[in-house]
Amino acid sequence: MKPDIDLFGIFIPSLLIAALACYLVYRLLHAGLARTGLYRHVWHPALFDVALYFTVLGTVMLCLEQAAS
Predict the structure, then answer these.
(1) Transmembrane residues, as ranges (predicted)?
(2) Among 21, 17, 20, which Cα is nearest to 3's?
(3) Is 80 exceeded by the pLDDT of residue 2?
(4) 10-14, 29-33, 38-42: which has the minimum mean pLDDT?
(5) How would you class 56 by CB atoms within 10 Å of its CB: exposed for 0-12, middle for 13-18, buried for 19 or more?
(6) What is the rounded CA–CA span in Å between residue 10 and residue 4?
(7) 55 in Cβ contact with 30 (< 8 Å)
(8) Please, are residues 17 and 4 in contact by the beta-carbon 8 Å criterion?
(9) What is the percentage of the chain residues whose pLDDT exceeds 70?
(10) Sign of the CA dihedral 55, 60, 64, 66?
(11) How many CB atoms lie within 10 A of CB 53?
């Protein structure tokens, strides 16, 4: 995976682009899980949200790393 992406002379870290994409995926997952009522069974919803986001981010970064090699 390339560490930086050149966008019209501005270098943007690939982690930033992946983090923004993961945020959109996280929001969709959060809305779906909230609609199903899962958050009634979660002890600490904010901690669960952070763990969910980093799980999605880690999965995406792992997939990008595997695709690059």
Answers:
(1) 7-26, 46-64
(2) 17
(3) no
(4) 10-14
(5) buried
(6) 9
(7) no
(8) no
(9) 97
(10) positive
(11) 18
HSE-CB for 48 with a 13 A CA cutoff: 13
* Domain extent for 53: 4-68
Q: Under 8 Å CB-to-CB from 65, ≥6 apart: which residues? A: 1
Number of domains in the chain: 1
CA distance 57 to 33: 18
Q: Is the pLDDT of residue 3 over 90?
A: no
The average pLDDT across 29-54 equals: 96
Q: Give the SS3 label for residue 37.
A: coil
